[in-house]
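Now for one record.
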Amino acid sequence: MKLFHRQILVILLAFSSLISFAQAFEENHNRIYGYDPLLYNGRIYTFSPQPGTIGTQFLYPDFDTKGTATLRGIVYSDLTINYDVYNQQLVLKYVNSIGSGSQIEVSEAWLESFELYGSHFEILSTIDTTKRIFQVLGKGKVKIAYYRRKELALDTRTSSRNHFFSDPLLERFVMIGSKMDKYKNNRSFVAMFNPVQQDLIKKYLRKNKIKVKKANDMLMTDLINYCNTLGGS
């Protein structure tokens, strides 16, 4: 009888160990394959333009490029993400636990920033405290922020009467600390700074033949980094 009890005890201990191992494996599996509730708690992404719509709601037409997102200070890399400019949402594509492709909206409450196609985006509060997605250039106190949006309109030029997404419409801002002001051209850009800095920035723009309305990200990053070397504003 004692031998029988020992066998039962051994079997129970082994079964308990197996359960613990399975739980640990599942937790690790979730951590490895992305079932982290901080990242995967968003709503199912359901937006779909009506058939025949020309263009895309996304900033980038390709949805297979890997990016990085930061939520509550935690960095998640190797994510398949894209930026829905029309709805102002970061969309995550992944394979769920049953092997099907899914798309969710990354939680706006926890999302802080993301990197995509070499560009850095941050969630910032505007003057009316509304949170929006901005592309941000520069690392110092002074930064450049781009806000993009798209419009969905009806094409009246053809008989098909299809809807179409506009090209991204761009608004440009200079951020000095938490203050954000819009600029449209070289003159309004320079006006963001104090008089001593303005003279130096004008010379920099002339020397490098920069038109801030047309300059690419690299030129604008170099420009704002130069502005950060000029001291307080």
